[in-house]
Amino acid sequence: MEGSEFEEHGAQMLHYVTSYMDSVRSRRALPDVQPGFMQELIPSRAPETPDKWEDVFKDIERVIMPGVTHWQSPNFFAYFPTAQSYPSMLADMLCNAIGCIGFTWASCPSCTELEVVMMDWLGQLLHLPDSFLFCKPGKGGGVIQGTASEATLMCLLSARTLFFKKEREKNPDVTMGQLVDRLVAYCSDQAHSSVERAGLIGAVRMRKLETDEKGSLRGPTLKAAILEDKAKGLLPFFVCATSGTTTSCAFDNLKELGPVCQEHGVWMHVDAAYAGSAFICPEFRPLIDGVEHAMSFNFNPHKWLKIMFDCSALWVQNTDYLRYAFDVDPLYLKHENQGVMPDFRHWQIPLGRRFRSLKIWFVLRLYGQRKLQEAIRKDVRLAHEFETMVRSDDRFEIAADVILGLVCFRLKGENELSERLLKLLNADGRIHLVPSKMKGNFFLRLAICGPDTQSSDVRRAWDVIRELTDVVLKSDAKS
Amino acid sequence: MEGSEFEEHGAQMLHYVTSYMDSVRSRRALPDVQPGFMQELIPSRAPETPDKWEDVFKDIERVIMPGVTHWQSPNFFAYFPTAQSYPSMLADMLCNAIGCIGFTWASCPSCTELEVVMMDWLGQLLHLPDSFLFCKPGKGGGVIQGTASEATLMCLLSARTLFFKKEREKNPDVTMGQLVDRLVAYCSDQAHSSVERAGLIGAVRMRKLETDEKGSLRGPTLKAAILEDKAKGLLPFFVCATSGTTTSCAFDNLKELGPVCQEHGVWMHVDAAYAGSAFICPEFRPLIDGVEHAMSFNFNPHKWLKIMFDCSALWVQNTDYLRYAFDVDPLYLKHENQGVMPDFRHWQIPLGRRFRSLKIWFVLRLYGQRKLQEAIRKDVRLAHEFETMVRSDDRFEIAADVILGLVCFRLKGENELSERLLKLLNADGRIHLVPSKMKGNFFLRLAICGPDTQSSDVRRAWDVIRELTDVVLKSDAKS
């Protein structure tokens, strides 16, 4: 494909993108296909000679779209939002043109340097403590990870290395196996599945601690667990606190957990994957008061800040701990300016990395702080609007405090009623939600997701929910 | 930004992309900037209100380009190539429009289903054994990983889980710590740094074994190591064989290693990150004869197959082993069709994943097998052309067999001469190379990288090298 053809096909694709976004509301949010549907639609082998662009382009609607779950639709209320925006897309086009792999400073200085500045821009927007920023005194700084799962894992592994070094100083013969059998990490019983997974990968025990009635992990619970484990000869070393759980958007109490971690020399990591974006609004920032006690803090701009996947922002108070987590340094990756600016390959699980800070730069500049704040506030307002509708119908109850853009609700009574409602909703497909469960209570999660979700969309969703609730309760009355 | 503005700015960006590619040859391959250069070029905080598009667009040349290492330049010969192509860029635009996260089948059926078919297309192009394909009987299949580092780690962790289960069957009280202290993995002393890192993350011993004079790990060496370790009571469980090392593009002998691994019940993983793309050409396919003994095989289409980063293709003979590596299954990720098609979140380290199979689909269709083969053959031809020039100058010697698109060469005599030559070359900046070392021999690596590198570029590179060699040898003669 020549440059001129690329510009022509690219213009066609740009138009397809805007048409898709303009019409996504009218597509079924959850597709109506069966597993294996695609195998009949495309050949079983790659072609020998080139297919025509027109045929490939046509196949987007014929082959791909019938099986797409429309995450960017205003009728998609499942999981948490995944960011999408035109400025982010433009930045990705540039990222692909440059096509660099920024594993060291020398491999593309701009890639590393823009990331350093952007992580400070983001950190300042969130009013993170100075100790997390490159531009302030100390050893703090941030780095883009692919996902929150990787950020949690990276911090758990860094903490493991730190403890291994400490134990080695006391006893030079201690093995990694002896250590991992004694290490113990903690999270709440509401923490994301990736936290448990980080424990499995790191080969360490991950203890899930009970939360209070609001789904929040409290200081006394953690303290009791640490003392209990220390008495058994175990080594408490890591706590993953969650600010905004996936289940119900609950917040662990950092102000209580932080001092407990500091007293016992435990690494506190804060996973604010979804909620983090909201902290650019001063009114939500108190939700992470106590973050100054954390060794590391992570959130996903790629969820709720218009910066597209993958872009998970991780800050640490001491970047040496990340850098030394695995000290592997082959000749072909050495360069003359080592040690002056970060070589981010040491700060992450993979070696390769794209020029992802471009999309932070484009988005923060082309929206500006205020418009990003407005977008967050709009979604929170819509969530409360939906909450009010739910509360006004006495067949329903709210299952968790509505704090940001997530509403957890259920039909009063047995779980089975809400389970049936969810099944009907997803079979219907006009809107899409996923369920969760807390303290035995099954509920539906409605998260405001699409970039253009409006009050009318939320009201329409509520109409669909009520319509299908009638069906559930009618059949229940009959049986 | 409205849709109409996006189309307008997008067209501007498309044109910037083609202009960049058309003129990249004339830019200095390695930028002439010092660490910290960017901090003076941009504000230290994000703006309150939106910046103008025109200003952002202008800043690409003012702020970004001065510090870019031009990986897509025909004068860039460092590391290994990183793929770039217009069809791949078009696919990424579509991927961003859909903006889905395909962690389960239900979260976007098309995302999972296209990946299943594309991994079979790719596997067939490489003539992988049927046992690796979804479309053939058995439990084989493939999945897109972010990087080869993650693929190696994922397989090492899967093997660790498998061995833990086996050991638990023999002794239900065995702990993970007791196991990791006995587990031992192997790679060659030429393996990529990410293999050593996978061992560190997995908390297992990674033994580097000596290679033969060509940098190839041989069967008898592995066998001796396994027997020695077994005699010590250790548990050999994993071998990472390399097909095309980063150092010199050497090939471990899979035909010898495979049977040793099978005899001792060891998981053989093949890392063909760079070289893998070449196996779409039948003449290079014999380089991985013996791959049928491997439990897993990985290569990076995002290096040499015009499919852009990130896209690392991993196949396994038994997908259950990946799936059960970490069995974590929260309610909010469950869906009705579980188990029929893969839920790829179980097959990788992160949870989230983009719709990356789109770019495989676009590239394989818009080039077709033959054009992709031609591109590989062109690069290999250029490497041999460069080899011939090096051999014709008796100041130089070739440091390793030229098998694919990498030429390792050095000035005859002390390492220091080649070290000085490399320093001069990178200070000059017209072309960019990185060094490596094998068996004490320091050498320069010239990898054919840019998507449009021609014979004239390679000849020009050779002119630059000879020019600066004159400088090195003149100053050497004086001193």
Question: What descriptors fit this protein?
Answer:
homodimer, 479 residues, alpha/beta, 7-stranded mixed β-sheet, 4-stranded antiparallel β-sheet, 12% strand, globular, aromatic-L-amino-acid decarboxylase activity (chains A, B), PyrdxlP-dep_de-COase (chains A, B), PyrdxlP-dep_Trfase (chains A, B), decarboxylase (chains A, B), pyridoxal phosphate (chains A, B)
Verbal overview:
Two copies of one chain form a homodimer. Chain A is of the alpha/beta class. Chain A contains 14 helices and eleven strands. In chain A, helix 3 packs antiparallel against helix 12. Chain A is globular, with a radius of gyration of 24 Å. The termini of chain A are far apart.
Structural class of chain A: alpha/beta
Q: How many β-strand stretches of chain A?
A: 11
How would you name the oligomeric state of the polypeptide chains in this document?
Answer: homodimer
The residue ranges of chain A in which pLDDT falls below 50 over 5 or more consecutive positions are none
Q: State the shape of chain A.
A: globular
Amount of helix of chain A = 40-55%
Of all protein chain pairs, which has the greatest interface, and how many residues does each chain bring to it?
A: A-B, 149 and 149 residues
In the sheet with the most strands of chain A, the strands line up as 1-7-6-5-4-2-3
Give a short account of the largest sheet of chain A.
7 strands, mixed
Radius of gyration of chain A: 24 Å
Q: Look at the structure and give the mean pLDDT of chain A.
A: 95
**Beta content of chain A:** 5-15%
Number of helices of chain A: 14
Rounded to the nearest angstrom, the distance between the terminal CA atoms of chain A is 63 Å
Enzyme class (chains A, B): lyase
Keywords (chains A, B): Catecholamine biosynthesis, Decarboxylase, Lyase, Pyridoxal phosphate
Modified residues (N6-(pyridoxal phosphate)lysine) (chains A, B): 303
Cofactor (chains A, B): pyridoxal 5'-phosphate
